[in-house]
Design a protein that fits this description.
The protein has about 120 residues and is an all-alpha fold. Helix content is about 95%, strand content about 0%.
């Protein structure tokens, strides 16, 4: 009976010593990492400030990009409405008077030429 209790006690001591050894190794590793982080702290701060500046730059450029897209969208809408109105006017005038239709055709030709030159 005493031999059984002694064997269990020795096994528990071995387990406890192993756990303590692992805890000490983990503590030493954490201390080493802490020293490395403290040594690299200025570089980490510089890197993080660079990332912060980059994020601010991207945010500014994003705003400018969306403004540019909105401006171009408005230009295309205006051009589309103008074209539709010109062709609608041509269609209406073509049925009523031939001379006004030829003038509108000339205006459409001039508009197309002007659009091609400016583009």
């Amino acid at each position: 009976m005493f031999l059984f209790i002694a064997t269990i006690f020795i096994a528990e001591i071995i387990i406890a010593i192993t756990l303590i050894s692992y805890i000490v190794k983990a503590d030493n590793a954490v201390v080493g990492v802490r020293k490395s982080v403290i040594a690299l702290k200025p570089q980490i701060k510089a890197g993080l400030s660079g990332v912060r500046d980059g994020v601010h730059t991207v945010k500014e450029k994003q705003g400018l990009f969306f403004e540019y897209i909105e401006k171009k969208r408005n230009q295309y809408i205006i051009k589309a409405v103008t074209t539709v109105l010109m062709y609608l006017l041509l269609f209406i005038l073509k049925g009523r008077c031939k001379r006004a239709a030829s003038i509108c055709n000339g205006l459409l030709l001039a508009k197309d030429v002007w659009d091609n030159i400016s583009a």
